[in-house]
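Pair request: fold both.
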Amino acid sequence: MNREALLAAIDKKYKALGQNPDVHLSGLLHAEPMTYWDFIQLDALLGLQTKRTQLPDEMVFIMYHQVNELVFKMILWEMDQISFTEGIQPEKFTMHLMRVSRYFDLLSNSFEIMGDGMEVEQYMKFRDTLTPASGFQSAQYRKIEIASTELINLIDYRFRKTIDRDTPYEHAFDHMYWQAAGKDHKTGEKSALMHNFEKKYKKELISWMQDYNTVNLWTKFKQLPEDFQQNRALINAMRHYDHTVNISWVMHHYHAAAKYLDSGKGSSKATGGSDWHKYMHPRYQRRIFFPELWDQEELDNWGVTNLEGYSKI
């Protein structure tokens, strides 16, 4: 676009907004040039790491989880491009879903940073300062799950028969699969981990459940025209995403945690107090976002075998 055409386009843009284009051009004249560090707010970003101990590897732990949360934000951004696009075409659906899968692939492959990036002795000391906090309390991850599938697929399997589409959202929230990780199994009382989490995020997550009730990825897929639902690239993208999130990423996390918690050098319980083996392993939770896209043998072996070579349709 040449200068005359560019100025004409600027003029048209701001006049359409009811604004004087000359004022904006004048502001541009006096504005400071953009720098990399200002564009990504580098100083603010690098100032967000605050250690609670004198153990150096705590900094690795903090930064790693902050990176995870930034990637979670990227995932949610992509998911919204699917959920809130009217009349979405299978190619666009597939494109954004594969972006999300690649983000989760990045997270899965990054667990070597956790598994090999900290001394066990240091971790088992500074982790005590986290109590009763836990990665369980990542609200963004809960939002990803809710935006991925229908709520029934996130309900603790023991209570699924008591839940239907007329069930109040708060009741469904109280029976999500991850609630089991925040309760004392002897008394049934919620732990400090869960009380703190719900005080901060319960209302927000229930609102999120309402917002994505009819536009989560699974419902959105089932709303597509029949021929779109038979699109092989889209089906394979859905299966890849389901496998990546609910088996691959979870198992990488599981094995990284095991290196430390099963080391015999401290408490084997999660900082939140849960039985992390059963909470994390997919064969217990059987968390499946798109169950109808898997055959019976694959469903029966969910989390039991690796399924790394799961078949594509």
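--- second member of the pair ---
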Amino acid sequence: MTARIALFDLGNVVVDWRPARLYEKRFGDADAAAHFLAEIDAMNWHKNHDSGTPMDETIPALIEDFPHHADHIRAWKTEWMEMFEGYVPGVPELIGRLEAAETPLYALSNMASETAKPIFDRFRIINVFRDIVVSGDHGVIKPAREIYDITLNRMGNPEPSEVLFIDDRQENIEAAEALGFHGHVFTDAAGLERALLDHQLISP
């Protein structure tokens, strides 16, 4: 069965999110930025925000461990939007084609509740999605089964096989496919276009 619904991840599928972008500006050096992010284990730390813990709780705790990086750690919140640089090339055009084909469009993103509105306000194409499931609102992140169950419910409980889930992380796709979703591991717009054509969600 081909899918009839497109479910998008947002970060690095629709919008270009790269934390190193902010810290390369702050440090003036890519290697120093990478070292800082590795030293504080930034991506694992950030999972707390995606899981619903406010940054005002996690930032002081991390500063206790890395007081010499206090200003840079605070910037994760105060300069958050500096981590973004536009849309992922080619994806807005594909979303436009899906919208023109009247394909139901939804989004599921591991995202902190407090950062969602600034992202949605800046990247207006996100408003075409009928609903957006933000992990921080539910206290659970991909690839946990519960977030997919929540998403199906928010979409009106379609059969999972009716949904094509597009995400840039293999483990998130594997978790969705185990529940019966169709999955596409996003690498670029050209690959996504082929997947959408295969599922007849857009026309050539």
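Observation on the second member. The radius of gyration is 18 Å.
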